[in-house]
Amino acid sequence: MFPSAGNFLLVRVPDASVLFETLLTARVLIKNVSKMHPLLANCVRLTVGSAEENAQLIAALKLVLH
Question: What is the mean pLDDT of residues 15-31?
């Protein structure tokens, strides 16, 4: 995870494309930024949402990333 002063987190994961597709099937939308710049390889952007949305995101991430 990278430092952030915004309403999002930039996180490097093992495979951003797989995480994006897996979460999409779970109806959780994140942004795959890994192709925007070479320094962002395997990075995704997680936007801070409501408490309920954040709980749904965390639960989905736990299932995928164990």
Answer: 95
CATH number, position 34: 3.90.1150.10
> How many folded domains does the chain comprise?
1
pLDDT at position 1, please?
A: 79
Q: Whose structure tokens read 């949402």?
A: 49
- 66 or 16: which leads in pLDDT: 16
HSE, CB side, 13 Å, CA atoms: give it for residue 48.
6
Closest residue by Cα to residue 31 from 40, 41, 21, 20 = 20
Residues 6+ apart with CB under 8 A from 57: 28, 30, 46, 49
| Whole-angstrom distance, CA of residue 12 vs CA of residue 53 | 21
